[in-house]
Amino acid sequence: MTEVVPMADLEAYAGRLGIDLSSVDLDSIQLPPGDDFGIKSDDDEDLFHEDALEFEAGFANVVVVDNLPVVPPEKFEKLEGVIRKIYSQMGTIKEGGLWMPVNPETKKTLGYCFIEYNTTQEAELAREKTNGYKLDKSHIFAVNLFDDFDKYMKVPDEWKAAEIKPYTPGENLQQWLTDEKARDQFVIRAGSNTEVFWNDPRQLMPELVHQRQYWTESFVQWSPLGTYLATVHRQGAAVWGGASTFNRLMRFAHPQVRLIDFSPGEKYLVTFSSHEPSNPRDTHRVVLNIFDVRTGKLMRDFKGNADEFATGGSGGVSGITWPIFRWCGGKDDKYFARIGKNMISVYETETFGLVDKKSMKVDNVVDFCWSPTDPILALFVPELGGGNQPAKVSLVQIPGKEELRQKNLFSVSDCKMYWQNNGEYLAVKVDRYTKTKKSTYTGFELFRIKERDIPIEVLELDNKNDKIVAFAWEPKGHRFAVIHGDNPRPDVSFYSMRTNQNTGRVSKLTTLKSKQANALYWSPAGRYIVLAGLKGFNGQLEFYNVDELETMATGEHFMATDIEWDPTGRYVATAVTSVHEMENGFHIWSFSGKLLYRLSRDHFYQFLWRPRPPSLLTAEKEEEIAKNLKKYSKKYEAEDQDVSMQLNEQDRKKRKMLQDQWNEWVAKWKQMHEEERQLRIQLRDGVVSDEEEEYEAKEVEVEEVLDVVEEVVADLDQE
Fold first, then answer.
1. pLDDT of 334-351, one tens digit each?
2. What is the pLDDT of residues 161-189, one digit of tens each?
3. Of the residues 29, 157, 261, 576, which has the maximum number of CB atoms within 10 A of its CB?
4. Which residues are in the RRM domain (predicted)?
5. Residue that wins the pLDDT comparison between 711 and 664
6. Cα–Cα dist 252/248, whole Å
């Protein structure tokens, strides 16, 4: 426990040192980063056990540069100028922070120097960028952090075998998937609390699983398959797991981390931080770390100026889009890539180096995205030379970097790419200029990825001048929906990539006119969709069955900001977050649009369903279950009936309790009425009966003088 020192003792001690505390501005004192002086934070005590994160301190901002030329005094100034020119590019060198030791006998330099930067990050960048720098054929720099020497000196001379600890089985991290009621979990953040619940619509309320205060300092995030829950702290990130215990499984040291991202197969975690430069004229410094989730090992880090990580290789911090690294689809986590200036850098996770040890050159590329299932990149290159060189969309196979398909596009204003989640289709929304260049119109290029030679279809709306408000593919299906129109109430159209009549051509299914919708939310299982009117539409909801082309229900969650389907497609959550000061909380709806229950929370920040891994059943087995659903549903219908009876019994008990309370209240007032009987008789001048019909009501008029006004009239004749 931290010792508490009285202020009087501090003032006395300062007096002995000749310091007047009243003249000291305590607010201007800057504490070393990462040092809490033994005062533990109340909001993150779980990270401060005996195995808490330890950060190096000392000379971490000093680098040692070896293999420099050995020069006499007359060349000393020239060599210092060369070194200063090279290393000032990595950061600000402190005044007097460049020192080259000299041999006292020969007066020549010793071939190495010390450079002190303002920050540790600048020193690390200098080591990364200049280690192996070739000054000339004879002098190749060897650069290390000063603290590394101390670390290596502590390595014992004799090897000692590591102690092998006995194996203790860990918690089954998939146990939550075996819930007997087949329920799903979700996490919410409200105020300083983070809570995990079972969604229990049968009981018309959620069941609390785990709750913790100050669990995270920023946000929480589920891993893509639902195995881990990640939290973010000043010292780094942490992952937690289990069905109800949520023990901490691993920590990842990354000071001032701001963003995190999992790989699709949950093998790796990418963390991001941005640091203000010591020189105002410089851009922010970016640090990206890639960790192995299970071991916590740092697999690779990337450091540099924000410009290097901005989209297209240009722009400041605002130009950085997240995630910077985009992962190839599938559970293998084999490739990840990032965009740069005139190139796409594709890395493989076996060595965390570039595929073929070089980036893929693509002149003027501005956007790319991976197929959700295959190692295929979709690239977009805009028009160049005033339209002389058309825009193009290319499909590139990795690792061979073979171009599978290319489509040239003319008069392009903007372009966005949308993959269907099975990787079967790619939709490219193309905004084109009209001939006058004063306006634009929109069309779609539809790629059939799984078919031979990847055929492409062009789709234009009935009114090609309609503004596209939203686009969304049906998960695991062949349909897509488009919200379009310039009216306050736009139209919603549904299309299919295959129908009974045209298996190889896109066709329109229907158009819903004048809908209060500006967002589309498909069920993860397909078939059902929520047409949502957020922001200006104040939370209008329409639950639509695309198989039957009919509206199942409509509803409203006033001021709703977020909508999310559960991973099974059975339930929908709508939430009002702290973007609005009022009505904070969430509603749970059935897939058909029935409001099941609601929960209010002040300062509501997040609602996230826990993802589920893909089903282990084959498509044939799922089809068989669907055909024999009545046989399987008997068990669950019986359970539903039992729950319904329990709810009815609970309702009966509640009604009986209310009836008992009413009877108790009536008896109390009857007793009071009886106790006051003699008083009533006295007030009635001895009349005993309380029955109103035995009395005759008479109306008596009573005149009462309220005021007297005296009026004096002048006698005009006498005047």
1. 999 999 888 999 999 999
2. 888 888 888 788 999 999 988 899 999 99
3. 576
4. 61-148
5. 664
6. 11
Structure tokens at 359: 């980036």
Collect all residues with Cβ–Cβ distance below 8 Å to 13 and sequence separation of at least 6: none
CA dihedral 272, 277, 282, 286 (to 10 degrees): -10
Q: Using CA atoms of 194, 195, 196, 201 in order, give the dihedral in degrees to the nearest 10.
A: -140
Task: Assign 630 a pLDDT band (cuts: 50, 70, 90).
Answer: confident
Total count of residues recorded for the chain: 719
**Torsion angle, CA of 116/122/123/128, rounded to 10 degrees?**
-150
Q: Which of 204, 176, 190 is nearest to 607 (CA)?
A: 190
Position 481 pLDDT exceeds 90: yes
Q: Which residue has 């990050």 as its token pair? A: 121
Instruction: Give the whole-number percent of the chain exceeding pLDDT 70.
Output: 87
Q: For Cα atoms 398, 404, 409, give the angle at the middle one, nearest 5 degrees.
A: 120
Rounded (10°) angle between helices 619-627 and 629-675: 60
Residue 2 phi, psi dihedral angles, 5° rounding: -70, 135
Q: How many CB atoms lie within 10 A of CB 187?
A: 21
DSSP string, 63-102: EEEES-----GGGHHHHHHHHHHHHTTSSPEEEEEEE--B
Spatial distance between the Cα atoms of 655 and 546, rounded to a whole number of angstroms: 42
Among 429, 483, 476, 713, which Cα is nearest to 615's? 476
Cis omega before residue 6 (within 30°)?
A: no
